[in-house]
Amino acid sequence: MTARKGKGLRRKTRDKLSLHVREHGKIKIRKILQEFNIDDKVVIKIDPSYNKTMPHPKYHGMVGKILGKRGECYEVLVNDKGKEKIIIVHPAHLEKFKGQVSPVQAS
Fold it and tell me: Has this prediction a pTM greater than 0.85?
């Protein structure tokens, strides 16, 4: 008999949730304490070394809009294949968006 295939949240994420060799180690405190304003555009970039309120890996790399704050975390509005979803993300997994939004993501 073979072992049953794992079905956890982090399956098939070896490359997606792995850091570059120079980024290993302790997370920077400024990343945990960073602040965002409502209606800011942010990129969800999961930091695998900080597991607290980590979003599902399918949201990694998506651009969203800050709707509000819930405790230490932020409510982020994300367009998931035409359906808008609100996900709760810790600021350690968010970065300010620097760039232009494609026409698909703008709507």
Answer: no
Per the structure, the complete domain to which residue 90 belongs is given by 21-100
Q: In this structure, are residues 83 and 54 in contact, taking their beta carbons and an 8 Å threshold?
A: no
What are 54's two structure tokens?
């980590």
CA–CA distance from 101 to each of 2, 11, 43 (Å)? 46, 30, 11
Burial profile 12-22: b = 16 or more Cβ within 10 angstroms, e = fewer: eeeeeeeeeee
Residue with tokens 């070394």: 49
Bridge partners for 70 per DSSP: 73
In a domain, 4, yes or no: no
How far apart, in Å, are the Cα atoms of 103 and each of 65, 80, 82, 106, 107? Answer: 15, 15, 13, 5, 7
The single-letter DSSP state of residue 62 is -
CATH number at residue 91: 2.30.30.70
Inform me whether the pLDDT recorded for 100 exceeds 80: no
Higher pLDDT, 3 or 75: 75
Yes or no: say if 64 and 77 are a contact pair by the CB < 8 Å rule: yes
